Amino acid sequence: MLQLNKLTKTYRTGDKALQDVTLTIPKGQVLALIGPSGAGKSTLIRCINRLVEPTSGSVILDGTDVTALSSGGLRKMRRQMGMIFQEYALVERLTVMENVLSGRLGYVGFWRSFLRKYPQSDVDEAFRLLDRVGLLAMADKRADELSGGQRQRVGIARALIQNPRLLLVDEPTASLDPKTSRQIMRLICELCAERDLAAVINIHDVALAQMFVERIVGLKAGELAFDGKPTEMSDEVLTTIYGEEDWHATIRDVDDEEEDTVAVEPVL
Ligand SMILES: Nc1ncnc2c1ncn2[C@@H]1O[C@H](COP(=O)(O)OP(=O)(O)OP(=O)(O)O)[C@@H](O)[C@H]1O
After folding, report:
1. Do the domain assignments include residue 194?
2. For residue 259, how far is its CA from the centre of ligand 1 (angstroms)?
3. How do residues 190-218 score in pLDDT, each as one tens digit?
4. Where is each ABC transporter domain found (predicted)?
5. Which atom of ligand 1 is nearest to the CA of 222?
């Protein structure tokens, strides 16, 4: 379980990016974080693993106060928080397999990581994960030979090989076409369900969030503006979060047929 208690971040520039955000995310829950540009979504995700240092408040993961950890403790804790990025953050000249295995760098010793010698169990797990995300046949390809959707699958496998307790996902579909975006969101949500893994997904596309997650949290100017089920999203809620606009095409009619329900097909 992840608990955020009165999490606040004021940057040195004086920007109040987060103000008193209190949230509890149970084990296995996938939560989408929405809100206008500058609302504090990326800051919130980065305060959880302290890539951004919170100004005040606390982050508690399964009883451990992440905000109180020293640098050694934080390094260990970060292994338990897998991160998936908008721009994938792959090492372009390395293969798919090497990129996935790099998710184990926090676990293997210095020399093993320097020599990129991973235990066989890690290699076996990397193959299993590549199979699961539909990229087994691409294990030896270089990352720079992949499409955006394939890159994001590598990013997902790299986060999962850490065997995390929590996934932090920052705009996973922002660089992808609509169909690939759905496939990637579905894959992330399926994998969380399979592993009883909680996730916080920062996402701009409200309809996509509604399609896949069980809880949506809206941020506005660093404060919580909505916390509810996808079915509770309405024009009024969107107006509260984003301001006045015609929302007709933005929210998903929850009664719509799901036209694309097949499991993620391998993209080879
Ligand atoms: N490193 C920084 N230094 C100073 N201010 C920052 C920094 N990073 C973010 N901010 C400010 O904090 C606020 C929240 O930014 P943040 O990037 O968290 O929002 P966001 O909701 O993720 O936006 P977007 O959807 O555009 O990515 C904004 O006012 C932004 O200008």
Report:
1. yes
2. 35
3. 999 999 999 999 999 999 999 999 999 99
4. 2-246
5. 14
